[in-house]
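mind reviewing this fold:
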Amino acid sequence: MLFSKALEWSSFAITEIPNPGTGEAPPGAEGLLTILKWVAWIVFGLAVAGILITAGTMMINNRRGEGGEHAGRLAWVLGGCILAASAGGVVGALV
C-alpha cells in the first residue's frame, strides 16, 4: 500500500518538473567540442599508458619481491580511468 502510494506520488512529481529541452549550442561551439574530443583522446591515451607503465613496474619489481607495492598505484590509475570514462555521465546528471 505504502509502496503504491509512493509510486503514485513520484509519477506526479516527475510530470510537474519542467523540461528545458536539450537547448541550442551557441555559435562557435564546434571548436569547443573539437577541443573536448582532443582532451578526451589524450586522457584515455594517458590512462592506457599509466596502466602499461604500472604493469611493467609490477613485473620488474615482482622478481625483487616488491610487486605488491604497486597495487596502490594501479588502484589510483584505475580510479582515474573510471572518473574519465564517467565524466560525461556525471556532468549530465548534475546539469
Summary: The radius of gyration is 22 Å. The chain has a mean pLDDT of 75. The CA atoms of residues 58 and 67 lie 5 Å apart. The first helix runs from residue 2 to 16.
